[in-house]
Design brief:
This protein is of the alpha/beta class and 168 residues long. Helix content is 39%, strand content 24%.
């Protein structure tokens, strides 16, 4: 069995697609009319057809027991960009105990969206602030090998992986 991704029931497909494209930068990769799959595997289904699928009189949205989680490499630029939209926030930007900054807000159907700072970016931010790798590991509650890996440029990591696999 393979998990294919979450599916959200939406009241207005066009409005929801526009939100996910404009705010989060996702794009439609499969369009079946009443169901659209976006980049990252997120599927949107019209509430009307979903009611038929599950044999229910109504579909409720807006519960707070579920969220879609995204990570952003340039968190500051993302939160600046969010200001251009009429966003209903669950909360403003907060910083968790491990140092990751996150923001939560609602989509048009009151589904919760969380966008967090990429964890490698958190690690690099702490290193750039002058903390030692050991201090960063303690601050983030991660193994020192994670901090060491975050310090390496992506090209060096790919070169080592290729070398282990017998590549050049």
């Amino acid at each position: 069995m393979k998990m294919k991704g979450p599916m959200l029931a939406v009241a207005d497909m066009d409005k929801s697609v526009a939100f996910y494209e404009d705010v989060l930068g996702l794009h439609v990769v499969m369009d079946f009319g009443a169901n659209k799959t976006l980049t990252g595997g997120l599927a949107l289904q019209t509430a009307e057809t979903y009611r038929e699928f599950i044999g229910a009189d109504a579909v409720s949205c807006g519960g707070n027991s579920f969220e879609l989680y995204f990570e952003e490499d340039d968190f500051d630029a993302f939160t600046d960009r969010l200001k251009r939209f009429d966003i209903q926030y669950v909360h403003p930007v907060i910083e968790h105990a491990w140092g990751q900054r996150v923001v939560r807000f609602y989509d048009p159907d009151q589904h919760i969206i969380e966008v967090g700072e990429n964890m490698k970016a958190v690690c690099r931010r702490f290193l750039e602030s002058g903390l030692t790798p050991e201090q960063v590991a303690a601050r983030m509650d991660v193994p020192i090998r994670y901090v060491t890996a975050c310090r390496r440029p992506a090209a060096a990591v790919m070169h080592r992986r290729n070398k282990r696999r017998g590549g050049n």
